[in-house]
Design a protein that fits this description.
Layout (H helix, E strand, L loop, with lengths): L1 H18 L13 E2 L9 E3 L1 H9 L3 H9 L8 E7 L3 E6 L1 H14 L13 E5 L11 H19 L3 E8 L4 H17 L14 H13 L3 H13 L4 H23 L6 E4 L1 H5 L2 H11 L3 E4 L2 E4 L10 E4 L7 H15 L4 E7 L6 H10 L7 E6 L2 E5 L2 E3 L11 H8 L1 H8 L8 E4 H5 L6 H21 L15 H10 L2 H11 L3 H20 L7 H25 L8
Parallel strand pairs: 5-6, 5-11, 6-7, 11-12, 13-15
Antiparallel strand pairs: 1-2, 2-4, 3-4, 8-9, 9-10, 13-14
C-alpha cells in the first residue's frame, strides 16, 4: 500500500533527524499517514510532527520542517508541503497514478488482498441462535456482520473458520421439547397443557402438524409414540429432536438465502459427550477459581477483577450457559488452537463480556485473543412508522419475511449501514426504492453502468487492452484511481478494528467517484486513443467495485 510506503519515508526521516541531532533521542511514536479532509491538502498527510512535538520539546512546525528536508524522494511523490500546525502533506504524481490502472488489472481478483494476517488461525462465531424458533431480523444483522468480517479477514491474509454454535442443551431446550410435544399431542387430538415457560409461537403448531403428516397421519403417529415408549425412550425427547432438526434446517435455509455460509456447525451437547466440560471444570478447580456455596458451584471471577462471581452449576445440579461457554472456549483455544477468537453476540449478551474475558484469562490465555462484537438492536420502519409484528403470524418479523420483502442484497447492505455498536433503523420502503437514496441501488447501479459501457465497447469491437493510460489527465479520472487504490487500506481498517461497515462505506465512495467520472468524462468517443485509455480505467473500476461487493456478499448486476 502506498500509505505504508509514505509512512516508511517519514519514519526513516525521523530516525535520520535524530542521528543528525535535529531531533532529540526520544522514543518515536507509531508513524502513520491519513487522508486529508480536502484534496487541496494532498493525497496523504503525516502527523508525526504533532505527536513528537511535546516529547521533543519543540514546535511541531519546526519538527515538520526538519523532517521535510530528510525525506528521500520517491517515484510516487510529486511534492511535499509542510503546513501549520505541523502536517506534512504528500501529493502523488499523476504519472504514477495512471500506471496503477494496469497494476490493478494485472492483479485481477486478488487486488485489494493484503497479508497482515500472515496465516493466523481465526475463528469467527456468529448468529448462534438457540434452535427453538426461526431467525428474526436482529439475527440477520449478526449474520451479515459475521459473514462480511470473515470475508475481509480472509482477504487480509488470515485463515478463517466461520462457526455456528448450536445451543442444543440446557433448560431452554427442555422447554422447547415440552412445548413441541404438547403441540404434537394436540395435533393428534389429545389433551395436553402447555408448560408455563413454553414457546407459544404459531410456528410450533405448524411444525407439530408437519411431523404428524410426515409420520403418516394421526393413527400412524399414535402408533409411533407407543412404539417409542415401549422401547424405553422418552417421547418428549424424541419429538423434540425432530423439531430441533427442523429448526436448524430452516435456519440454514434462511442463511443460505442471505448468502451466509458456515464452515462448521458446533453442537453444545458435544462439550458434555466428549468431555470438554469435565476437563475445563477440573482445570479451573486446580487453579483455585472454583468455589461452592448455597449448594451451587461458582466461578470466582472477582479474583480476576470482575465485579461479581458467577454460577457455573445450579443447586439442582444443572450447568449454566456460562459453564457451557467456558467449555466451548476451552475447546476453541486449547483444543483446536485458534490464535484468535471473535464472537459476534446480540445486545442481550453485553453483560456476559467481562466474565468471559475473565475466564479466558483463568485458563491461561491472553484475554486479548478473545474479541467480542456486540450487535445492537434493529428497528424496522416503513417510512416513519415502526413495524413491530409480522403480518403473517402476529409475532416478531422473521428474517425470511424480511428477505422475501426487500431481497437479500438490501438486507446485506442495510445491516452493514451502521457500526455494530449502534442501534439501527431498517427502512423497508427505502430498501426497495430505485434511487440514489438507496445505497444498494446506488452501488449496484454503478456496476451495471460500468458493465454497460464495456458491453458497448465489445459490441463495437473496441480492443482497449493496450490502452495508453498516460493520456488520463482529467481530475475526475485521477480521483477515481485514487479511490480504487484505497481498497487495501479499507481491508486493513476492517481487519484491524473489526468494523465491517467500512467496506460498505468504501463501496459507496467508489460508486460516487465513478458516477462523477461518468458525468464529466465521455468514455466512448471519436477520439480512439482516449476511448481505449478510458475503457481500461473503466475495466479496472469494475474489477475493484465487484471485489468490494463480493466482500459484502452482494451481487454485482450487469444490467439494471
Amino acid at each position: 500500500m502506498i500509505k505504508d510506503d509514505i509512512a516508511k519515508l517519514l519514519e526513516d526521516a525521523a530516525i535520520k533527524a535524530q542521528e543528525e541531532g535535529l531531533l532529540p533521542p526520544v522514543v518515536l511514536p507509531e508513524v502513520t499517514v491519513e487522508h486529508p479532509p480536502s484534496p487541496s491538502y494532498g493525497d496523504y498527510a503525516g502527523t508525526v510532527p504533532l505527536k513528537l512535538a511535546r516529547a521533543a520539546r519543540m514546535d511541531a512546525l519546526k519538527v515538520a520542517k526538519a523532517l521535510e528536508g530528510l525525506i528521500v524522494p520517491s517515484e510516487e511523490i510529486e511534492r511535499i508541503e509542510v503546513v501549520p500546525p505541523g502536517f506534512i502533506n504528500f501529493f502523488l504524481k499523476r504519472e504514477w497514478l495512471v500506471k496503477q490502472v494496469d497494476a490493478i488489472l494485472d492483479a485481477g481478483e486478488s487486488y485489494g488482498d493484503i497479508d497482515i494476517g500472515q496465516g493466523l488461525r481465526v475463528q469467527v462465531e456468529f448468529v448462534s441462535v438457540n434452535p427453538t424458533g426461526p431467525l428474526h431480523v436482529g439475527h440477520g444483522r449478526g449474520a451479515v456482520l459475521g459473514s462480511t468480517l470473515s470475508n475481509v479477514l480472509t482477504s487480509a491474509g488470515y485463515s478463517v473458520v466461520k462457526e455456528y454454535y448450536i445451543n442444543d442443551a440446557g433448560s431452554q431446550m427442555d422447554s422447547f421439547y415440552r412445548s413441541l410435544h404438547c403441540r404434537y399431542l394436540k395435533a393428534l387430538g389429545l389433551e395436553s397443557e402447555m408448560p408455563l415457560d413454553g414457546y407459544f409461537g404459531d410456528y410450533l403448531v405448524d411444525m407439530a402438524r408437519e411431523i404428524v403428516a410426515e409420520q403418516g397421519g394421526k393413527d400412524e403417529a399414535i402408533s409411533k409414540i407407543a412404539e417409542i415408549t415401549l422401547d424405553g425412550k422418552d417421547p418428549v425427547q424424541e419429538i423434540g429432536k425432530i423439531g430441533v432438526a427442523k429448526i436448524i434446517e430452516g435456519i440454514k435455509l434462511d442463511l443460505e438465502l442471505l448468502g451466509v455460509e458456515f464452515d462448521n456447525w458446533f453442537y453444545e451437547h458435544e462439550l458434555y459427550d466428549e468431555g470438554q466440560y469435565q476437563r475445563v471444570m477440573s482445570l479451573l478447580r486446580e487453579r483455585g477459581y472454583i468455589g461452592e456455596r448455597e449448594g451451587a458451584v461458582w466461578f470466582v471471577s472477582t479474583a480476576l477483577g470482575d465485579d461479581k462471581d458467577n454460577v457455573l452449576v445450579r443447586s439442582g445440579g444443572s450447568p449454566t450457559y456460562f459453564a457451557s461457554d467456558i467449555a466451548y472456549h476451552y475447546n476453541k483455544f486449547l483444543e483446536r488452537g485458534f490464535d484468535q477468537v471473535i464472537n459476534i453476540w446480540g445486545a442481550d449478551h453485553l453483560g456476559h463480556v467481562s466474565r468471559m474475558k475473565a475466564v479466558v484469562g483463568a485458563l491461561g490465555i491472553n484475554p486479548e485473543r478473545l474479541r467480542i462484537i456486540i450487535a445492537q438492536m434493529v428497528s424496522l420502519k416503513r417510512g416513519q412508522n415502526v413495524v413491530k409484528v409480522s403480518k403473517r403470524s402476529g409475532e416478531l418479523i422473521t428474517l425470511r419475511e424480511l428477505i422475501d420483502e426487500v431481497g437479500p442484497d438490501a438486507c446485506l447492505v442495510f445491516f452493514l449501514s451502521r457500526s455494530p455498536d449502534s442501534q439501527m433503523d431498517f427502512d423497508l420502503e427505502l430498501a426497495k426504492k430505485q434511487s440514489a437514496d438507496n445505497p444498494v441501488y446506488y452501488i449496484q447501479y454503478a456496476h451495471a453502468r460500468i458493465s454497460g459501457i464495456l458491453r458497448l465497447a465489445d459490441e463495437r469491437g473496441i480492443d482497449y487492452t493496450g490502452g495508453d493510460t498516460s493520456l488520463i489527465t482529467n481530475e475526475a479520472e485521477l480521483d477515481l484511481i485514487r479511490k480504487m487504490l484505497q481498497l487495501p487500506e479499507f481491508t486493513e481498517l476492517v481487519a484491524r478494528n473489526l468494523e465491517p461497515q467500512h467496506i460498505l462505506y468504501y463501496s459507496q465512495e467508489l460508486a460516487t467517484a465513478f458516477h462523477d467520472f461518468y458525468e464529466k468524462c465521455r468514455v466512448i468517443s471519436d477520439d480512439e486513443q482516449m476511448t481505449r485509455a478510458r475503457l481500461k480505467l473503466v475495466a479496472a473500476a469494475r474489477l475493484v467495485l465487484a471485489k468490494s461487493l463480493r466482500l459484502m456478499g452482494v451481487s454485482a448486476p450487469e444490467r439494471m
